[in-house]
Amino acid sequence: MSEQATATATRERKAKVPPRSPHGDAWESLTRTHAAIVQRLQEMLSAADFPPLPWYEVLATVAEAPEEQMRMGDLAEALVITRGGLTKLVDRLVKAGLLKRVFCETDRRVSYAALTPAGRDLLAEMRPAVIAELEVAFSANLSVAQANELRQTLDSVRGSACSA
Amino acid sequence: MSEQATATATRERKAKVPPRSPHGDAWESLTRTHAAIVQRLQEMLSAADFPPLPWYEVLATVAEAPEEQMRMGDLAEALVITRGGLTKLVDRLVKAGLLKRVFCETDRRVSYAALTPAGRDLLAEMRPAVIAELEVAFSANLSVAQANELRQTLDSVRGSACSA
DNA sequence: CAGAAAAACTTGTATCTACAACTATTGCTT
DNA sequence: AAGCAATAGTTGTAGATACAAGTTTTTCTG
Fold it and tell me: Which sign, positive or negative, has the C-alpha torsion A22, A24, A26, A32?
């Protein structure tokens, strides 16, 4: 069997590489679309003298949390970055006055990242710009209904990707 | 009482921050799902002693190109990374023997990244592992038909995101 | 047909991220 | 209650990426 495969491969080199699959193609489309939109957003933010995209993601995530504060570990998980990386990212936001650290009374190990007024103000400024950019990127080819459908599909995929 | 006061204060503070939008939610889902799957793939590759994900993406993209080679600029655009970044990425792959640089006869400015036999072999080894991981992540919640639909949706979004 | 402008790629630098080791605190087990 | 394991977060270091400036080759223009 592998003899035959090798012989075939010798004649037709590309046959050695397994073919693409529907799920693989969907992934390729997902990753390239993601990268393209990230690029657009970063260009826009940089042109408007806003902080980089990861800062926005932190602010937007913390703002959704109760009391506008979040445990470091939970925040890292939500953003899908490492805890070490988050520590330094939050350090920068704290230094910029956009977040403050809040220490837990009942468990001295945990610390929270909490929105400051300046952080809330900046988010309020950035959000419309980000959303406008996304509208341009999405709306041309995606109705609101389609956007919701897309979100549901992706959420379910993420559900299984995280659990396993 | 104080609960109500707190709730009101919270609501008033958050009112400064513009609300979320359907497209914004779709984007959030897209970016987090992307990150989650990347994380899974990288874990798998590292556990199997394979090179990191960007190497796979380079190999897979070059392998699809005619003659299994691609101009640096086109490759950078396809991967949605900067040309400077690609130069160094390809440097590493060349040093590992997976790619070779081919210089254009008619235009001495351009250079191609071309697959070596070792690069083709490695891709042939990695692809099944990557696809298997994606099948696990996707298949649980996505039929082949749904995967194709997802790909089409994302492709059309990318089309408008890139052109503008 | 010079000489400027553009194009393709590379390089230098500074920042950011991940990975692994480390500290401090809490929970569990006997 | 003592000691070991688990949890939460930080830090040190190495590697990777973006951004901007630099080099070489090609194209355009007067």
Answer: negative
